[in-house]
Design brief:
Length: 308
Amino acid sequence: MQLAAVLETGSVSEGAAFLGLTQPAVSRSLSMLEARVGAPLFVKGRRPLQGTALGLQLAAQGRIIINASRQASQAAQGFVKGTRGVVRVGGVPFFMDAIVSQIFGEFQIQEPDITIQQSYMNLPEVVAALKAAQIDLGIVAIGDASSGTDFEFTELLPGRNIVACRTGHPLMRKRPLLTGDLTAYPWVAPLPGSPLMSDLQMILMSIGTSELNIRYSGGSLMSVVNFLAETDALAVLPFSVVFALRKENRVTVLPYDIPQPNRSLGIMRQSETTLKPATKRLSAHLVQTFDRLKHTIQRHENAVVWGT
């Protein structure tokens, strides 16, 4: 490393200054190196200093070590500052696909050296993964019941469900909408394990029927949207998901008030685990983004869906 610095700068004193060492210390090291290899490292009588064939080969290796040392130092500093690292996040599928993944993309532009590893999980899987230290954060929906002393929960959005359908669905022109209208069309079932499944059961109870005409199930968010857009099927979805898809103008909200879940979407983490700096930075970004976003979502719902 010292040989590379000296040949890079052209003198022992400048090479020593580059490495933060003293000139006598570098001179002694280079003399010891010449004695060890048994051959001169510098062309005699040349100023600025020039390396022999052997000196140039060793200096090339020294530059690799200098660069690796610098990269290691930058990595350590970045980890401490939270500008480098890996953050593992598990979250509910539809919410992650519709909104959170886009926020992750915005975050990555600001913090290009932070890697995000995302997994699809519902609440039971998130709890297990947090306990096993397999993820750093969970993005899930929980109710008023405490998440337990083992976990902390930070709300991002209050839970709000709607009935979604394609733009131009026949029910969009019908007024007033009656409970029986919902049973006249096929439905899309939520993913197994999704909290939307219990919400669908609440809708069944509210309209006084025991079952709906399920014609599609088990799909991803994109496949559900594609199915809705091509059929007259209905689906229960979080309003925030339909809000995120509003520019595509393929699915919309059926203005029918349904029972609302007593829960919120938010960030779950273990209480007694110290978050890595990069994880803290991502968590803060999510909270700040949703703090702005939830007001926009509420205004959009009032104006577009309910006309207030």
